[in-house]
């Protein structure tokens, strides 16, 4: 009993590493002289605790990358923050991403935060050997002598199943998966406190993927680093994420501890996502969702899933279902779950 | 028996490294593979990252020349294709979907331009297509992959999500009604539900239009679900090949077994 209450006390006392509070970010574009908002992030709140791996999944074009970019402050027009805020907590100090000066944000990115972009092989300079990217990116931040630095880099590459010979190659001489791993190596060699990764393992075979995930897990375990990462690969979430949030059309629709999400999902979209996973040994025809992903420039009214939802009721097209806690760690936004009267 | 594709003992060697560390990499070692014209099929290529899958694809597409061996498409040596007209005739029948759409598209060019250019190029069989015909064709293929022309029109690559860009690349490749699609990780950035609808589309194009597809993937589950044959590659070699279901139900080579055992499943939750 006592340990339990102690745990609980420390749970509430410790500030989360990341607090995202009612975040809204839109792309505002001009089409035929008319401003048009693409509401890619529309009122999303979530937290990530120290040492936690928080996974994000959802439909293609539902706004996952936009959410990630907005959280790390990598915001370029026409994307802009419309409301809400984002706070990181590094070294006991809160940093409000949107009130930092650009140089302060830059300093935090270097020291505490590392961001692996989707399809991000472009951080590798195409006309220079990989070795130079490591030197430019990491040498000054690691406080090691040259020999120790290169030893550390080579060691780190090996954990990602990369031959240290890649250091002498140009990016175009590496395979897609080798480039992806090189990018991960660059982002993690400094062992940051917070790693944000957007689809980091799409080009990897399952054996190499397992080793990459193990390396990330080791960083998390040894240093208590936190992770926020996007992948559409639900099996990866099942294996490494502590908690998973499901995004549909710019909104978070469900969030739960990983086992709960896979065994007791309540939102119809999450249930569909979990059920649509194919397996080796299974050739029964899989139905996919009817209809197409909704346009975020003109999303459906009420619950954005209603045109495709098998359980849709009258109220669903009129009102937006509020995020409701089923348990302290399981939230869902659906009238069929929370009751249409709430 | 005529062959639509005959990969005949091809190898590819690359040179890498600096002056002091120069080494040669045998990306593809003596691979042979045939697809029969009368039996359109989906052939999955799976295997280790860096095992030569994209290099093999590049040789089929004539983008890389084999160091040894040759690739025949419909009886013609792909390496012998020269000049615009021959190249265009080839591309009308063989279309690529390249790995990593963020690298495949020119960042400074609007993506709809690729689609319109492809349509204008390959719809000319019955005279010059009108603007309306071109747009209709483009929209039709986009709808097949869960997009519309309205969503893509005027956008630059970085203005689309990863999965949208990948699906645009598939749509573009389907515009000419090719006979062979060489698809390198075509759905790696697409969620499970859309992914199934795209592999179902592949299956129906094979069955309805006789399209053959070389499907390079790390996703063994969709390879099992949709493909007829499979090859498993490691370090430039094919270590196992056969009927996709047989190979994946009962892999024989130690690498194939290890690969199957490393597949993650949602049951780990
Ligand atoms: N620079 C931009 N300008 C206008 N619209 C954009 C821009 N970038 C993204 N979008 C749009 O915002 C929406 C959300 O895109 P986002 O990249 O966040 O999706 P995602 O969930 O990461 O999808 P995926 O899984 O396919 O990568 C999409 O409709 C996309 O077309
Ligand atoms: N243009 C090039 N110059 C030099 N070496 C190359 C070149 N292209 C590929 N290679 C090398 O050839 C090998 C095979 O690469 P390839 O891209 O074919 O692998 P892959 O099977 O597609 O891997 P992935 O699954 O990671 O995409 C790798 O060792 C790579 O470094
Ligand atoms: S709120 Fe209504 S439409 Fe939305 S998921 Fe729930 S039942 Fe379906
Ligand atoms: Mg994305
Ligand atoms: Mg490749």
What are the salient characteristics of this protein?
heterodimer; A: 342 residues; alpha/beta; Rossmann fold; eight-stranded mixed β-sheet; four-stranded antiparallel β-sheet; 11 helices; globular; B: 269 residues; six-stranded mixed β-sheet; binds adenosine-5'-triphosphate; binds iron/sulfur cluster; binds magnesium ion
CATH superfamily of chain A: P-loop containing nucleotide triphosphate hydrolases
The tally of strands of chain B reads 10
The biggest beta sheet of chain A, please?
Answer: 8 strands, mixed
Low-confidence stretches of chain B: none
Termini gap of chain B: 49 Å
Query: What's the level 1 CATH class of the largest domain in chain B?
Result: Alpha Beta
Strand content of chain B: 25-35%
Outline type of chain A: globular
What is the CA-CA span between the terminal residues of chain A? Answer: 35 Å
> Which descriptor suits the 3D outline of chain B?
globular
Task: Write down the secondary-structure element order of chain A.
Answer: HEEEHEEHEHHHEHEHEEHHEEH
> What Rg of chain B do the Cα atoms give?
19 Å
Helix content of chain A: 25-40%
Query: Number of DSSP strands of chain A?
Result: 12
Bound ligands, named by name, code or SMILES: adenosine-5'-triphosphate, iron/sulfur cluster, magnesium ion
The first-level CATH class of chain A is given as: Alpha Beta
Describe the protein.
Chain A is of the alpha/beta class and 342 residues long. Chain A contains 11 helices and 12 strands. Chain A starts with a helix and ends with a helix. The model of chain A is unreliable at 1-12 (pLDDT under 50). Chain B is of the alpha/beta class. In chain B, helix 4 (111-122) crosses helix 5 (131-144) and helix 4 (111-122) packs parallel to helix 7. Chain B folds into 2 domains: 3-93 and 181-268, 3-Layer(aba) Sandwich (Rossmann fold); 107-177, no CATH class. The interface between A and B is large, with 68 and 64 residues. Iron/sulfur cluster is lined by residues 267-268, 303, 305-306, 309, 311-313, 316, 321, 334-336 of chain A.
């Amino acid at each position: 009993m006592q340990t339990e209450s102690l745990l609980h006390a420390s749970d509430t006392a410790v500030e989360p590493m990341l607090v995202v509070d009612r975040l809204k970010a839109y792309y505002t574009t001009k089409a035929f002289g008319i401003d048009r908002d693409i509401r890619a992030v529309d009122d999303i709140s979530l937290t990530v605790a120290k040492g936690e791996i928080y996974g994000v999944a959802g439909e293609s074009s539902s706004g996952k990358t936009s959410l990630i970019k907005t959280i790390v402050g990598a915001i370029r027009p026409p994307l802009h923050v419309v409301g809400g805020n984002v706070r990181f907590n590094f070294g006991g100090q809160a940093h409000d991403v949107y009130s930092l000066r650009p140089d302060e944000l830059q300093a935090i990115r270097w020291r505490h935060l590392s961001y692996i972009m989707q399809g991000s092989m472009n951080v590798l300079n195409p006309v220079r050997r990989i070795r130079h990217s490591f030197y430019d990116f990491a040498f000054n931040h690691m406080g090691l002598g040259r020999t120790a630095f290169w030893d550390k880099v080579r060691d780190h590459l090996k954990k990602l199943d990369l031959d240290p010979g890649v250091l002498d190659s140009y990016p175009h001489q590496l395979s897609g998966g080798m480039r992806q791993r090189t990018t991960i190596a660059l982002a993690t060699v400094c062992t940051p406190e917070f790693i944000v990764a957007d689809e980091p393992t799409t080009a990897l075979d399952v054996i190499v993927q397992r080793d990459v995930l193990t390396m990330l897990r080791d960083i998390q375990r040894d240093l208590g680093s936190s992770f926020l990462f996007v992948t559409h690969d639900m099996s990866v979430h099942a294996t490494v994420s502590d908690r998973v949030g499901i995004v549909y059309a710019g909104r978070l629709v469900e969030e739960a501890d990983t086992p709960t999400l896979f065994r007791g999902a309540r939102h119809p979209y999450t249930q569909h996502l979990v059920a649509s996973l194919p397996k080796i040994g299974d050739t029964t025809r899989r139905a996919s969702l009817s209809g197409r992903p909704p346009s975020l420039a003109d999303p459906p009214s009420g619950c954005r899933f209603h045109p495709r939802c098998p359980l849709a009721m009258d109220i669903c097209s009129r009102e937006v279902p509020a995020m409701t806690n089923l348990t302290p760690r399981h939230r869902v936004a659906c009238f069929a779950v929370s009751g249409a009267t709430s | 028996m005529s062959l639509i594709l005959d990969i005949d003992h091809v190898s590819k060697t690359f040179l890498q490294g600096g002056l002091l560390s120069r080494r040669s990499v045998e990306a593809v070692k003596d691979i042979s593979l045939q697809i029969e014209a009368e039996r359109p099929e989906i052939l999955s290529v799976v295997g280790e990252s860096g095992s030569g899958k994209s290099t093999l694809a590049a040789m089929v597409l004539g983008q890389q020349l084999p160091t040894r061996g040759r690739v025949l498409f419909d009886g013609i040596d792909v390496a012998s294709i020269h000049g615009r007209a021959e190249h265009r005739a080839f591309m009308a029948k063989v279309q690529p979907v390249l790995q990593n759409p963020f690298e495949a598209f020119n960042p400074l060019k609007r993506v709809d331009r690729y689609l319109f250019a492809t349509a204008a190029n390959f719809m000319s069989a019955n005279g010059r297509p009108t603007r309306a015909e071109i747009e209709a064709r483009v929209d039709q293929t986009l709808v097949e992959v869960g997009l519309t022309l309205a969503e893509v029109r005027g956008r630059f690559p970085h203005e689309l999500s990863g999965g949208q860009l990948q699906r645009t690349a598939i749509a573009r490749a389907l515009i000419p009604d090719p006979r062979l699609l060489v698809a390198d990780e075509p759905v790696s950035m697409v969620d499970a539900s859309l992914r199934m609808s795209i592999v179902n589309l592949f299956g129906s194009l094979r069955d309805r239009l006789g399209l053959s597809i070389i499907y390079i993937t790390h996703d063994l589950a969709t390879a099992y679900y949709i493909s007829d044959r499979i090859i498993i590659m490691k370090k430039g070699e094919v270590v196992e090949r056969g009927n996709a279901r047989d190979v994946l139900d009962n892999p024989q080579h130690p690498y194939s077994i290890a690969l199957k055992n490393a597949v993650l499943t949602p049951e780990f939750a």
